[in-house]
Amino acid sequence: MRRSSHANPLAVFLLHVVVISGALITVLPLLWMAYSSFKTTAEIFRYPPWLPPETWSFHNYASLLEGYTYDSWYGNSLLFAGAQTLLTLFFCSLAGFAFAKYTFKGKNILFGLLISSTLIPFQLMLIPLFIEMSQIGWVNTPYAMVLPWVAPAFGIFLMRQFALAVPTELLEAARLDGASEFRSYLQVVLPILRPGLAALGIWTFLSSWNSYIWPLMILRGDVNLTLPVGVAGMEAQAAGSATPFGEIMAAATLMSVPVIVVFVFVQRYFIAGLTAGAVKF
Amino acid sequence: MASTTVAEPIATQSRSRFSRYGCAPYVFISPFFLLFGLFFLFPSLSALILGLFRWNGIGEITWVGLANYERIFNDSVFWQAAGNTLTYTAASVFIIMPLALVLAVLLNAKTLRFATVWRAMYFTPVVVSTVATSLVFQILLNENSGLVNAPLIALGFDPIDWLGDRAFVKTALIMVIGWRSLGLLTIYFLAGLQSIPGELYEAAEIDGAGTIQRFFNVTVPLLRPIILFVSIIVMLQAIQVFDEPRILTEGGPANASLSIVQYLYERGFERLRFGFASSVGTVLFAVVFVISFIQLRFFGTFGEDEGS
User: What is the rounded distance in angstroms from the CA atom of residue A80 to the CA atom of residue B272?
Assistant: First the structure.
């Protein structure tokens, strides 16, 4: 604070120029996405690119909803991301609580197993997991989309970190009152975990909403796709004919805007979760 | 009477044999470990074994020993993909990460107004689908009408074919990957910077240290653990790049932008060479393992190991 009083005004000005122009450049592609969604494909590839569309209209959005099963992709993405988030929060908070507040036999070995699993890139298991899914008969089902991802080691670490802050006396008091262990989890632990749950929930929802390679492998048939697979497919399908970039930009905008809006409101939790889970000070 | 006095200690003993609270902790961790074992450990271990076989998913499984690995290491496309991935990784560590550090220092400056707004703007690309952003960059990087080339065209230079020219395609992808990950890395650095006591800077200032000197003599040494931590996160991310080259270039032109994970997916999964794909996965695993191992040795798991 005191430093600002004798800060060099030119340096302060330059600082703002650099930071603000960088910030504008960073969001420009996203604004461009929305801007292009109002142009025809021909207008998108016209020079100079900043010329506005001849007529401002939602025609790309209309033909997106007409020509593609975009609403199904949206519904599928919401369903998978929602289910994955709820299950992840439940399993991770329950297990994270157990690791933080109980001593039990085998705890260190099991925790070590989790630690070592972070050394495994998920691409290693991609093919065997696909084979496993096809053996169970789960290819192209919500189970294959959701269940393999609801027990992430990262989530359990995060939950354990937040659960360490639960006062042991509170748990003892609940026990004296005759509460079962699960009841203490629900009534004592979960409320204290709330910021952690928010962080993990946002993170899980986002990673499911944006995931690409696994749904690309597991989903079949146009109406069953998720947004990233469906939208990426709009480009690939068009091989030969002109790629419908106007509609693609409309599709990309519609799938990004809600995420950005939500992020603006919950960024505090999101960033807190990132740094709490990742960096110790 | 006698039976209760005998039963009582046995009951408490069996309760305490595993834990004071009976089976509760085991019940709490069991759904997690069940799913973890079924959908993570089992397929991961299977990959190591499947890499020794040839299998297209329906026909018979043939033992081929190390033949898959021989084929990988004799495949020039694999080496191309490995080289490309190495380029992405090196650029992430030596260009994107230092940029993020400088940006974090700027965003942390006390004289900066509305810092939270700018910070949020830098972070936004992190939350948006890479599929969506890759499709926008296809427009922005277009040779004749893209916004990136517009200044060149306006000044009378030849436009650059970012996505179709072997000489530029990796640069283009590094820009896109950097744009996507800069905000995330900045957040890590910012968190680290906020843990540095302000008095250190004041002391350095009294000693006559300028901005640049303070950066190299106070900030960088104190952030060393975080710099190392972020460098490993960055490397792991870069090694696993898939979405951007897949959508922007399909690995082209002539595999000049093909990544290792793309190689695994396209040469293995799409051509139903499941054994081969698993052996590529194993090679990737070996590389990631070494890097992650360094991370764990230096920083503990996710930077944290108290209480265990």
Answer: 27
Q: Rounded mean pLDDT of chain B?
A: 86
User: Residues B245-277: pLDDT tens digits?
Assistant: 999 998 889 999 999 999 999 988 899 899 999
CB crowding B50-78: b at 16 or more within 10 Å, else e: bbbbbbeeeeeeeebeebbbebbeeeeeb
Residues of A (54-73) whose Cβ lies below 8 Å from B: none
Cβ neighbors of B53 (< 8 A, separation 6 or more) are: B61, B62, B63, B64, B275
Q: Where are the domains of chain A?
A: 2-57, 60-278
Q: What is the CATH number of domain A60-278?
A: 1.10.3720.10
Identify all chain B residues contacting A137, using CB atoms and an 8 Å cutoff.
none
The class of domain B67-303 in CATH terms is mainly alpha
Q: Is A242 on the interface with B (CB under 8 A)?
A: no
**Residue A220 contacts B, CB cutoff 8 Å:** no
Q: Does B1 have pLDDT greater than 50? A: no
The interface residues of chain B toward chain A in range 138-197, judged by CB-CB distance below 8 A, are 138-140, 142, 144-147, 150, 153-154, 179, 182-184, 187-188, 191-192, 195
Strand locations in chain A (E): none
Reported ipTM: the value is 0.89
Report CB contact under 8 Å: B243, A212. Answer: yes
Q: State pTM to two decimals.
A: 0.88
- Angstrom distance (rounded) from CA A32 to CA A235: 18
Q: What distance in Å separates residue B282's CA from the closest CA in chain A?
A: 6
Contact B32 A156 (CB under 8 A): yes
What ranges do the domains of chain B cover?
2-50, 67-303
